[in-house]
Amino acid sequence: MATNDESTIAAPAGTIAAPARGASSPSPTPPAPGAPSPTPPAPAVVVEGLAKSFGDVQAVRGVDFEVAAGEVFGFLGPNGAGKTTTINMLCTLAKPSSGSARVAGHDVVHERDDVRRNIGLVFQDPTLDGYMTAQQNLELHAELYGVQSDLVAPRMQQLMEMVGLWDRKDSPVATFSGGMRRRLEIARGLMHSPRALFLDEPTIGLDPQTRRSIWTYIRELKESEEITIFMTTHYMDEAEWCDRIAIMDHGQIVALDAPETLKAGVGTDRVTIQTEDDDAAIAALEDRFGVRANVSEGAVTFGVPGGEEFVPRLFAELGVPIRAVSVSRPTLDDVFMSYTGTTIRDAEEDSSKHKNRVMMQMMGARR
Ligand SMILES: Nc1ncnc2c1ncn2[C@@H]1O[C@H](COP(=O)(O)OP(=O)(O)OP(=O)(O)O)[C@@H](O)[C@H]1O
Ligand SMILES: [Mg+2]
After folding, report:
1. Which residues lie closer than 8 Å to 159 by C-beta, 6 or more apart?
2. Distance from Cα 85 to the centre of ligand 1, integer Å
3. How far is the CA of 82 from the centre of ligand 2 (A)?
4. What is residue 356's predicted lDDT score, i.e. its pLDDT?
5. What is the pTM of this model?
6. Atom of ligand 1 nearest to the CA of 77
7. CB-neighbour burial class of residue 107 (10 A; exposed 0-12, middle 13-18, buried 19+)
8. 30 band by pLDDT with thresholds 50, 70 and 90
9. In this structure, is the dihedral angle defined by the CA atoms of residues 253, 83, 257 and 64, taken in order, positive or negative?
10. Burial class (CB in 10 A: 0-12, 13-18, 19+), 249
11. Which of 5, 79, 232 to mutate to test the pocket of ligand 1 (most atoms within 8 A of CB)?
C-alpha cells in the first residue's frame, strides 16, 4: 500500500457526475475583433508554502507552484526527495503540516470530498486485486465512486481499448505483466472521469519499451480526456515528456520550467573523461582551466561552454593521461546537477548508503 499516515482514500459520498468537459478547450469560432478575451481556465493545482514533517524529518519544506488546467506536470527528484509526500497531500491522503493547496478549485484540507471526487490516483505501489479480472477491478472502482451504472460499460470499454487491454478484460490480474497492470491502473484511475489524474511513479521498474508505451498513453490522455496530469518520476528521460517539471531535492523545489528551457539554462556541455588518475585530473582542471570537476558515475565530469572546442585544449594542456573522452549536450541530469551539485543517481546512492548506515547503527544499538 502507499504511504498513508492520515487515512485511506475513501469513495466520496453520493453519485459523482462526470465533470463538465470543454471548459478549457479553445472556442471553435475565434472571438470577434475587439471582443473581450476569454478568461483563462483556473489552474488545476495551486500550492502555497506546502510543508510536511514526520517527527524530525522535514519531507516537504514549503513548496509553491501552480499547475495549469490540461498540463502534463512532473515532479522529478531522487529517492526521498518528497515527491510522494507532496502527491499524498494534494490527493488528501496526508495532512499538510503547514501551507495550503487547492486541487480542481477545492481546498485539500477543508474540502476533501470535493477534491477526491475530481481526481484519479495511481499509487506508487500497485493496488489492483490480483484475484479479480481486469473488468471486475474497474467495475469495483466505478461502484466505489458511484459512477452512473449505464455509463460504466461504455467507459470501461473505451479505457481498456485505450490501454490495449480490452481483449484481456476477463483475465485475472494476477496473470498480467507489470506493464499491463500499470496500464490497467491508469484506466482504473480514469473510470470516474476525473479532472486531474495523479500518477506516482507510473513506470517504476518497467522496461524501457513498456515505459515508452505508457507515456504514449499518458500523452494521448491529455488530448482525448482534456485532463490535467500530475506525475512523479526519478527517470530523467521521462521528465522530458512533461510540459513542465519541478525538480525536487530534499523537500524543496530547486527549479521549475519546461524541460527544454531548463536545459537551455545550463549553458554548458557535459564533458566526461576517463583518466589514469582522477584526483590529479580534477586538480589540473581547476588549476589550468579554472574548471570545477567531480567524479560522477565513475568518470571525471564537468561542464564547459562549447565542449567540442574544449577537447583539443584538454588533450594538449591537462598533463594527465586521458583514456577516453565524451561530450554531450546538457540533459535534465545536468540541470539537476547545476542546482544540487550531484547527479540524481549519485543522490540516490548517497540516500541508500545513509539509510544503510542508520539501519546498521540501529542494529548495533540493539545488540
Ligand atoms: N509516513 C512516513 N513516516 C515517516 N517518514 C516518512 C513517511 N513518509 C515519508 N517519509 C520520509 O519523508 C521523506 C520523503 O519521502 P517521500 O516518500 O515523499 O519521497 P519520494 O520523493 O517519493 O521518494 P521515492 O522516489 O523513493 O518514492 C523521506 O525521508 C521519507 O523517509
Ligand atoms: Mg515516492
Report:
1. 138, 187, 190, 191
2. 6
3. 7
4. 60
5. 0.79
6. 21
7. middle
8. low
9. negative
10. buried
11. 79
